[in-house]
Amino acid sequence: MTRAERPAARIILLDPSGRVLLFRFDPDDRPPFWCTPGGALDPGEDYPSAARRELREETGLDLDPGPEIARRQVEFITIEGVPVSADERYFLIRAPGDAIDTGGHTALEQRVMTRWRWFSLAELAALDEHYFPEDLAELIAQNAGAAQ
Asked: Which of 25, 121, 122, 124 is most buried, by the most CB atoms less than 10 A from its CB?
């Protein structure tokens, strides 16, 4: 299967209590899952700029993404049905509060990103639905001190 290259910036967003923000995706072709904010780079965009743009579009927050804390090479099929090989870069950001604004979501995001929630690490461990990245708790534990 030929896969499209998909560079993407993902954000591990922590509130002042250390909870992480995840969006629940309800696609038509697979079971629901939870995921961090983020998405594909626009042409000519670098990873930090994409992280800041995606954060603004998906949460309404305009914050500096700080340094990249992790990188993943993953293969999956996008919500639009495109097989991709994704080069995902992760940025850990501390939000000033727990309010977000999803008014910047695209029509597709409005359809499939049905809700959002802040999770403590204990709640994340007890979650009975898939979430991505699968090692999110470990990434938070290893890097929480580096958050902006």
From this structure: 25
